[in-house]
Amino acid sequence: MPLTQLASMVNAVPGNEEGDVDFIRRNRYRWSRFGFLDLSKVLWDQ
Questions:
Q1: Is residue 10, in this structure, part of any structural domain at all?
Q2: Does residue 18 belong to any structural domain of this protein?
Q3: Model's pTM, two decimal places?
Q4: Whole-number Å distance between alpha carbons of 46 and 36
Q5: Total count of domains within the chain
Q6: Inter-residue contact 6 to 46 (CB < 8 Å)
């Protein structure tokens, strides 16, 4: 999944104002550790 598509999905969550690419990059390892995000499934350069 391209990072931009993931950002648009996160931004679509009600009550989330920070769903941009930088927000995802800052939180990716924490989300991965909790099992919310599989880092190998995201295309980080797109």
A1: yes
A2: yes
A3: 0.73
A4: 20
A5: 1
A6: no
d(CA 37, CA 24): 10
Cα distance between residue 18 and residue 38, in whole Å = 20
Residue 46 covered by a domain: no
State percent of the chain over pLDDT 70: 100
Is 25 part of any domain? Answer: yes
Give the domain extent around 18: 3-41
Residue 33 pLDDT greater than 80, yes or no = yes
Cβ-based neighbour number of residue 6 at 10 Å: 20
Cα separation of 32 and 40, whole Å?
10
8-state DSSP, 13: S
